[in-house]
Each structure stands twice: as structure tokens, then as C-alpha cells.
# Entry
Amino acid sequence: MTRRKNQKRDRPVVIDLFAGVGGLSLGAARAGFTVSAAVDTDTCSIESHAKNFPNSEHINQTVRSLRGDSLLELAGLKRGQLDGLIGGPPCQGFSSMGHQDRSDRRNDLFSHFFRLVAETRPKFFIAENVLGILSEKYADVRARGLAKVPRGYVLLDPIRVTASDFGVPTRRTRVFFMGYRKDAIDDISSATFAVKKGDDVTVEEALRGLPVFIDPEWQSESQGWRRVREVIQTPFLKKLSGRIPVEVGDQTAVDLYFEKSKVSGCLGTIHAANVIARFKRLEPGEQDLVSKAVKLDPKGLCPTLRAGTGSDRGSYQAVRPIHHREARVITPREAARLQGFPDWYSFHHTKWHSFRQIGNSVSPIVAEALLKKFAARL
# Structure
């Protein structure tokens, strides 16, 4: 774990469990919270999170072994000081893209999240997961977890959220389990989180300004740093170009972005000639029958980005969408744009880990919108 520097106590604080690269954390920071601590077992993810949140405590340990008092102590908090406990318990056992294995040991981490709610007594909590967890076959998993929510909390009905409704260029849909302490927060209902949907942010708009040509030989971290063009700033692009919260951001990445207009993660992928030929023949939205990759529709939304598997599950790389103008799969930086991450945000220097981090993350745009509702009531 890294040692946290002194943080100001003039902002409400959250702890992010199963933090990954920090989609929920960034949303929280932009909503006005300090991320006091982040927990994850994945070493690469916790290292990347630490680059973006250098003043947070980083705990590289399983949530199963954490107890509420020790978690608060590690986060530099006393009982009663934690405003929010947030996190996305592993979803692989529930996902329709996986095996939907009721015996998957990771399924019990959903329950451990709510155990820590009971042990830390935050003013509110948010747990994110895939829609598959709402299946009847997981009714017992949900019941065991939610039963740990202590008396004195209001537990909201699960809320289904589609990222595109919040102005993110992907149709990714997830479910959020949320609740709050009646003695700490004014009344909130599920209707509080309703959003007035506007026009979709398209793939074309989301990728505007990023380099279209990507040399397949750009394989190293240094080669992945590329200049972005200045473009007309739409509301979506404004969310990506600035708004760096207090105590957030890798200083090197931030300086390169604002001083030289450079972003990381523009890494190439080497395709065989026959693969390139197949990709060129595809129409927007059409799937390549061999790789199963879908060509992005410039006027449409990106399909849900997948994470692939970790080293404990075979290290399989996720199928990546095909660029709408070039016969290649998208880069990590393009994936980050499509998930709603700002251009100055840092990910792992390899394609495999960066795509895992992005595919596993909550869009920070969605996270900010939800967390603002709680911030306004503290």
C-alpha cells in the first residue's frame, strides 16, 4: 500500500472498494468528494489508480480479509467520518458474457461489500454490478448481501443505468444498489436519479481530435504518446479535456496534455493482411465473423467494452471494436474516450491491462451524476 499524504477535511470523503483503475473514484472526485482510500487485489490496477490518485491510501488486499475498523484506520478516518462507501464487486460470476456460475467464489464479494457497510457505517453506499445479478438464479446472493445492511438505512430499489442516457457514447447498462442513513441524509428515492435523456453522443464525436492513423508498430509506452488535434469543444469533449479535481492526476500526464497536447495509450495492433482486408469490407455496425469484432458506427454508439480475463482466468484478451475509419481495432485511448475518461487520465502502459482496466470500469460521467445527488444532501 502507499502512504497517503495529509488531505484536507473540507470535502466529504469516500472509500472505493474493488476500485480498479478508478472510474467510480474519478466520478466521486468530480462530484466533490475526496477519495480517502482505494482497495483492489489487482496489482496493476491499484498501481494505475495510485498514479491518478497520488494522495489516496492504496490497499492491495482482498476485501474478504478487511474489517471495518482497520479499513477506516488505513484510510485515516475515525468512526463517523466516512461519508460514502462505493465500489463495483466482481461481476464475472453474474455476467451473461461469462459462465454465470453460481459457485464462482467471487460472487460472495457482493456480500462482503455490505458487511463493510455495516462495519463502517457510511452515510451512503453505492454498489455497481451487471444486470445479470438481478436474475432469479442469484436471488439468494442478493438476499444474503442486502440482509447485511443495518437498521437505520434506507435501501433503494436497484437502479438500472444505461451510460448513453448520461451522455456517454456507449450503450453499456449496469445496475446500482444504493442506500443511505436516515439520520445523515435527506430523503432520496429512486426517482432522484432519473435523467432527462438528450441526444446521443456518437462514436464520431467521442473520438474527434485523436489520431486516426495508428502505426501498428507503436507498441511501447513511449510510442503511445501522441498529439491530439484541437477541435470544437462539445459538452462531451469538455468533460474530457479538463476538470481535474483537487489532489487528482498523474502530474507527468497532466503536463504533457496541457503543455504539449499529448495523450497516452495510442498503441497499435499488428493485423495480418487477410484480417485487414476483412475489416475493410465491413459496413458500420457489422461484425467480423472470424474475430467477432464489430466495426464502430460513426453515427451510433459503441457496444459495451469488454475486459477480457485476468491471469487467474487464462489471460484472454477481450474482443475490441474496429475503428470506424481505419481497418484496425481501437487503441486504449480510444476505448477510454468511449467510456468517458478524460484525456489526461492514465492507464497501464500495456494494451492488455489498460483494456482490462477500462472494460471493468464504471464510466466516470455516470459515477459523477449519481454521486452528485448524494453530495448535494450532505
User: Anything to note?
Assistant: Residues 1-8, 93-100 have pLDDT under 50 and may be disordered. The longest strand covers residues 173-181. Residues 13-197+361-375 form a domain with the Rossmann fold fold (CATH 3.40.50.150).
